[in-house]
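User: For my dataset I need records formatted as: sequence, then structure tokens, nothing else. Please produce one.
Assistant:
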Amino acid sequence: MFFLWKFNRKLITAFLSMINLLWSCNHASLLYQSDLTSKSDSRLQTIIERGKLIAVTDPGATSYFVYRSQPMGYQFELLQQFAKQIGVRLEIHVERDPKTALEKLNEGYFDIVAKTIVITRERSETVDFMAPMITSRQVLVQRKPKGWRQMATMEEVNKRMVRQITDLAGKTIHVPKNSAFYYRLVHVQQEIKADIDIAEVSGKDPEDFLRMLANGEINYTVCDENVARVAQKVFPELDAETVISLPAKSSWAVGKGNESLLNALNLWWAEFSQTEQAALLYDKYFSNPMGLLAGQRDYHLSRSGQISGYDETIRKYSSFLNWDWRLLASLIYQESKFMPDVTSHKGAYGIMQMMPNTAMAYGVDSSSTPQEHIEAGVKHLRWLDNQLKKEIENSAERQKFVLAAYNAGLEHVNDARRLAVKHKKDPNVWDNNVDYFMLNKSNPKYYRDDVVQYGYCRGEEPYKFVREIIERYDHYRWAVTN
């Protein structure tokens, strides 16, 4: 009898293990939660409790950029997918120097370094890498000879190009500081037993060098082959046929010992990388990016330094508020996308989307210029700010309340603040305090409360309004200098 029970117990254990394996594959998001109690580190738990994933990446068309006032990029969209999977929002930072990014990761500034960092034994001693995401070779990028289109054969073109690594001796090659390209060229010097003039430049990314190369400012650079292929679609005069490395695996990095976060990333990537969505996302940035890259020539904020055609006016009137002009620009984009002739279904109109009565109070109407509407909108924002200044002393915190009041009205914001007091939350802090009651002001439990004076409000609108403006402002801050 004992033997039979022991035998059955083994069968049952094996069966349950198989069920658990199948369950884990189909219910990944739940595993992220159960993982919290199974690992000794608390990084993933911290991220989920914080409600925010803090990541750092590169600027550029295949990583992260702002295009027509919207954040985009392959790494950025992947991060969005992972953040969505674990149920948090994404906070993005930019750092060109991989060494600095990894140092700050270990210091706790970031949760993830989401760059195409080559996985090396040396780096793996200080950080943990998730499963490889991209495999690519490094290539020498150079300009094709003048008149290359008229040359009879590729052989004739190749005669004028650097095709052997031994021919790199004495050449000046520009690469980003502390990049894998720099270290590869150092090894090439040892291999060919000759010096290469390696111009290591800080503050620039591979795309900067590719653009400089196409413009004739430099003669050679090195980058990943897939990035070079993207650049060739815009700059066909670039040549990327000279391979200088074996295929290398790249991936994201997390702090050493952050097993729960690492496991969550690996589980997500194992599933997401096999989806059609993942394939389409890769094609969008690496296989067929012509329209996107062409548009960046005019609309890539980090290249143009311009957010809208009204930047000068926005800069002028933002000083009346003591606001960063990029925050005001983010508000205006949220309201009208910088289109002065739009009218909402509620009747708000103009570039600042003011309601007719409010606009009239500041002396503007539908025939007023966009500049006059911006001035009027700023006056209203300043009035709202003055109403809140006595109680909310922190100016950065007060901006969120002003934004909410601009959207929903000061009366509803003050209702939410009164609810915060009643429920022992801070009425002068927006995030995780007043914003909760603003969001729930469409719930009878809250809008029928005795402390509420102005009743029902569709609270989801001001809640999202503030969050989206602040998030866009964060993107503007790195993309455009003040």
